[in-house]
Amino acid sequence: MNRQWAYEQRAADPEFARAWDQAIESGTDALEDAARKRAMQSSDSLMQFLLKGRRPNKYRENIRVELDDDPKNLSDEQLEAVVSGTVPRGVRTATAPTPVDTGGDGK
Fold it and tell me: Residue 40: pLDDT above 60?
């Protein structure tokens, strides 16, 4: 089976497309299992990545943006800068520390 044929079948046959999607999900599940095992054995950075994915509200890095003025008064360039993560003139930011799990109830 060549790649082009597989993509054509996927586009033409809904049952084939479902099987394709299921195979991707199964492979991703196996990859997550392997990553989880590796994270528990030796990789702090991988563990952080997995925790951020599973509980983003608790483990992601948070940035708070405070505007000195009403957002309606900002120029398009200033608004684009805020959205892109740069700090335009007249805007203050504060990085909230990422919480550290101390082994409590996991919530």
Answer: yes
